[in-house]
Design goal:
Layout: E1 3-9, H1 15-25, E2 35-42, H2 45-48, H3 51-57, E3 63-67, E4 71-73, E5 83-90, E6 94-99, H4 108-120, E7 129-134, H5 136-154, E8 159-163, E9 176-178, E10 181-183, E11 188-193, E12 196-204, E13 206-208, E14 215-221, E15 224-228, H6 233-240, E16 254-259, E17 267-274, E18 280-282, E19 291-297, H7 299-315, E20 320-326, H8 327-332, H9 338-348, E21 353-359, E22 362-363, E23 366-367, E24 373-374, E25 377-378, E26 381-389
Parallel strand pairs: 2-3, 7-8, 20-21
Antiparallel strand pairs: 1-5, 2-5, 3-9, 4-21, 6-11, 7-11, 8-22, 9-10, 12-26, 13-19, 14-15, 14-19, 15-18, 16-17, 16-19, 17-18, 20-26, 22-25, 23-24
C-alpha cells in the first residue's frame, strides 16, 4: 500500500509563494515511520529562480526529477510555466537513491556500478524496479551503454525513466534534479523495493516508409553516421530524395529504423542534426554494418497511440501512471502541446494519479519474444509505467 500526493505551482519567479502554494496542497509532515520519495517535473525557470532548492529544504526525504518544457498531471492544469511535485509515501516500500559522477564514455562502467551499489546499500533485498533520469548531453552518446552497465550491475533489473527536456527556456542544457540541485552531466538512480508491480508500455510514432529501400551504415563513430552505403550521408539523403527541406534540425527530425539482430524488432532512432562534413547525428549508437530503414512521422499515429495508452490504463486502474512522450511527437503535432495532454485529461482526469511529461529520450523495458523484459533507450516513443501493488 502506498499513498500519492500531488501539488502544483505556477509561481516560477517567487520561491516564497511557490513553497506556500505547494505546502497548502500537501499533508505535511509525513509520518517519520513512513518512507517517502518526491518527484519533481518543472520548467527550467524553477531551477534557476531557486524554487526547487527551497522546496527540497522543506522535504526531509529524497527528491528526483527533470526539467521539461511541457507536462501535465491529474491535477488538471495545462501550462508551460509549471512545477508539479509528486510525493510517494509507504511503510512497505524502501527507496534507494544515488547521483552518478559526471558521465563520460571512459568512466561509465565504474561510475554506474558504484552509483547502483550506493543506491542499493540502503535496501533490505532486491528492488522491484529502478528509475533513471539522465540529461541529454551524455544520453545521446552513452544512453545505450549506460543501460547495459546498469543491466550488469543490477542483474537485469527493469529501469524506467526519461531524458531531461526543457529546451525552450533560454537554458539550452536541460538538467535532471537530484535533492533540489540541477545537474547537466550526471544521472539520478532510484531503486524501489517492496510489493510494487510495474506495468510498462511503449509506442513508437514512426512507420516504415515503403518508398525507400534499406541501406547499410558503412562508417560510424558512436551516434555519428559517417557513411551510408559508402556515400556521404547528406549526399545520400539528397540523391534519394529523403532530404526534402534542405537541412536536418530538431523540428525536421529524420526517423530511421535500425536492425540490430535476430530476435529483436527494429529500433526507431531519430536523426536530429548534421555536421558541416555531412555526417548525421542520431539519438543512440549507430554500429557499422547495421541495416537501416527510413520512416515517416505520422500525426494520426501520434493521436492513436495516446488514446491507446489511456484506454489501456483504464482497463486496470493503477495507483499512479508515469508517462513520457518524446518531443518529436510534439513537433509532429505542429508544436501544439495541448493535443496530447487534452486527450489524456479527457480519458484519465479524476480516475487516478498521473504525470505526463515530454522528454528527449525515453527509457522503458520492452517485452522480448521469450517473455523477458529488456531495458531499452528509446527515441520517438511514448512510454508509460503503471504503478500497482501486489
Amino acid at each position: 500500500m502506498f499513498i500519492i500526493q500531488m501539488a502544483q505551482t505556477q509561481a516560477m519567479d517567487n520561491p516564497d509563494r511557490a513553497l506556500s502554494e505547494l505546502s497548502e496542497q500537501l499533508k505535511l509532515p509525513v509520518d517519520p515511520k513512513e518512507n517517502s520519495l518526491a518527484f519533481v517535473h518543472c520548467n527550467a525557470g524553477f531551477l534557476d529562480s531557486g524554487v526547487v532548492a527551497r522546496l527540497k529544504e522543506s522535504l526531509p526525504f529524497p527528491m528526483v526529477g527533470i526539467d521539461t518544457s511541457l507536462h501535465s498531471s491529474s491535477l488538471g492544469l495545462l501550462d508551460n510555466r509549471l512545477l508539479t511535485l509528486s510525493l510517494l509515501t509507504s511503510r512497505n516500500f524502501r527507496f534507494g537513491v544515488s547521483l552518478t559522477k559526471p558521465l563520460t564514455a571512459e568512466n561509465l562502467r565504474e561510475t554506474v556500478t558504484d552509483s547502483y551499489r550506493e543506491a542499493a546499500k540502503t535496501l533490505a533485498g532486491r528492488p522491484a524496479m529502478g528509475l533513471l533520469y539522465v540529461p541529454p548531453s551524455p544520453a545521446a552518446y552513452i544512453g545505450e551503454e549506460l543501460l547495459r552497465m546498469l543491466d550488469e550491475a543490477s542483474d537485469n533489473l527493469p529501469f524506467f525513466g526519461a531524458v531531461a527536456a526543457d529546451v525552450t527556456s533560454g537554458n539550452y542544457i536541460p538538467r535532471i534534479v537530484f535533492d533540489g540541485e540541477p545537474h547537466s552531466h550526471s544521472a539520478a538512480i532510484v531503486l524501489l523495493e517492496g510489493n510494487i508491480r510495474p506495468r510498462f508500455v511503449h509506442y513508437p510514432i514512426v512507420e516504415k516508409d515503403p518508398n525507400f529501400k534499406k541501406a547499410v551504415i558503412t562508417d560510424s563513430d558512436g551516434p555519428t553516421i559517417k557513411a551510408i552505403d559508402g556515400q556521404n550521408p547528406m549526399e545520400y539523403l539528397e540523391i534519394t530524395g529523403l532530404l526534402r527541406k534542405g537541412a536536418i534540425k530538431p523540428e525536421n527530425i529524420l526517423p530511421i529504423f535500425l536492425h540490430r539482430g535476430e530476435g529483436e524488432d527494429p529500433i526507431p532512432r531519430a536523426v536530429f542534426t548534421h555536421t558541416p562534413e555531412g555526417y548525421l547525428i542520431m539519438g543512440g549508437i549507430a554500429p557499422v554494418n547495421t541495416v537501416m530503414e527510413f520512416g515517416n512521422l505520422n500525426v494520426d499515429y501520434v493521436r492513436e497511440t495516446i488514446n491507446r495508452l489511456c484506454l489501456s490504463a483504464l482497463l486496470k486502474l493503477p495507483k499512479m501512471l508515469l508517462a513520457y512522450s518524446c518531443v518529436s511527437r510534439n513537433f509532429t503535432l505542429g508544436f501544439n502541446y495541448s493535443i496530447e495532454m487534452e486527450i489524456v485529461q479527457k480519458h484519465l482526469l479524476d480516475k487516478f494519479h498521473y504525470l505526463f511529461s515530454y522528454s528527449v529520450g525515453e527509457i522503458c523495458p520492452v517485452l522480448q519474444k521469450d517473455g523477458t523484459l529488456k531495458n531499452r533507450f528509446h527515441n520517438m516513443n511514448l512510454i508509460a509505467c503503471a504503478f500497482e501493488t501486489l
